[in-house]
Amino acid sequence: MRPIQISEPSSREVVFGIDLGTTNSLIAMVNEAGNIKIFEDEQGRGGILPSVVSYEDGVLKTGYNVSQNAIYSIKRLMGKSIDDLSKENTHFTIDYESEKVIRVKCAEEKYLTPVEISAEILKALCDRVTKSTGMRVKKAVITVPAYFDDAARNATKYAAKLAGIEVLRLINEPTAAALSYSIEKNNNSGMYAVYDLGGGTFDISILKLHQGVFQVLAVGGDTKLGGDDFDRLLSSIVLDKYREKSAGVIKQLDSKNWISVSSTGMTVTGLRSVKEYLSKNTSGIFKFNINGEMLECEITRKEFEQAIGPLVNKTINIVTRTINDIDLKIDDIKGIILVGGSTRVPLVKESLARLFGDKILSDVDPDKAVVSGAALQAYYLTSKSKDRNVLLDVLPLSLGIETMGGIVEKIIPRNTPLPVSETKEFTTYVDGQTAMKIRVCQGEREMIGDNKSLAEFELKGIPPLPAGFAKIEIEFTVGVDGILTVTAREKTTGVEQIIEVNSSSGLSEADIQNMVNKSIESFNEDIKARSLAEAKVNANKLIRLIENLSSDERLKTLLQNVRDTLQGNDLDEINDAVAKLENASLELYESAR
Prior knowledge:
The structure is a single chain. The protein is α+β, with helices and mostly antiparallel strands. The strands form seven sheets. Strands 1, 2, 3, 4, 10 and 11 form a six-stranded mixed beta sheet that branches. Strands 19-18-12-13-14-20 form a six-stranded mixed beta sheet. Strands 22-21-24-25 form a four-stranded antiparallel beta sheet. A hairpin with a 2-residue loop joins strand 8 (about 105) and strand 9 (about 110). Helix 5 crosses helix 6 (about 270-280) and helix 7 runs parallel beside helix 8. The longest helix is centred in the C-terminal third of the chain and has 27 residues, at about 525-550. The protein is elongated. The relative contact order is 0.11.
């Protein structure tokens, strides 16, 4: 592994921190006084910009005051292709005639890609800065979910480029949040957990702080679990009450202490206001407009918590599993950092308190923790001050290549700190081989078919040497933003091929969240499959070697026996046949000496 080099720019420049969120987005900077400034809109509605876009009469609207047909949660589609959508449900209207590229309907005959829509959100954030300070946002540190794959990270960079922003670094959201809690300034070295429950995703990161360096030891999460799912369960409660009322079961309640949720229907924003109200109160009476009919009903916190309980428990299980993955115990965790508005839900805090006790840190607004950390990281990257911090993110899934027999050879294992560069040496399989096909994959399984293929290319110009004599060096380099560069080099001639993994059809969200779990569940089967594949590769090598070196009649039956066993999948039979052939050939060799 190469050492990590950290360089300082020659002069201080203004670089902004951006939290491009599924539900809300924010932009901030560290001013000359060293304070974090989060930019608000002109109407004084705070620093939060809803991550929604709509077109009305050809006019683009972003954030507040969008139409009912607004596009929201577009972040879920970043880095995806049409093929990925077939695996999951989506609330978007998609142009399925657009081949591989996803285009979302924004208005009549108006379709935009997720990258273009995200760029509009970024432009709206930049506009806040310009109106407030007159400055133009040229460079930024942008946060992404810890489980974003290469395609989604690249899509985020493209969106920034469309908005006129140079991305200085992409950093994981939980990692950025750790900076905002200032635990490093109090010399609080130790292990910390960042519990990030946003609108669309859940992430848990385990970080180690030592001498100002944040190192991510492990990440976990669920890319389809968030506050939006709480809202959907809340809507089910409301619809059940509506059906009961329609059946004459519910009597009209006194209309006191109620809040109007929506005058046009049960919108997502309206449901969030109910959720926020129940986070502060044990019950409330609410009014909804459903299909043109007004419903006034009482909803209690207990009803809401019973509905979301299984989802909250699921996050707790992910937390404990992620901690166990790195052989830590709950008592080893020094503090819990909360990120995301959904962590305000009392049941979430109560569940974490049952697990961790009084270790929950609450001195930072969970909605603003990520953007504050991004702004601080931007400042550290451009400041000459010695009072700086370094973030060492980790690779969420292993990276490797396919070798003979469909076996995966891991080059960089998951949870390796970034940036990182690893090199392994390979060789040719047959005599006179002058080219090698290199297939790059991502995942935890032992066989290529069970992992995600990221890229495939061919290294040509290999000297026509006997099998096993050529030396092919494969180098994987992953930057701090999680982007992979692969270099294949033949050492004697110097011929090389370099690619940057930049696939627009990377891992789907379902693939990502299941990969680690599947590798654990299938461990025994995977080891058996790898052992069988390795045995067949070695047996074929032995057959070719003996055929080239000996024509002795006594070996022909044993050679055929090995070939016959290779038609099946019995590992013991193959190993037994190979052992008999090896012993017989060794005896012939010894007798001929």
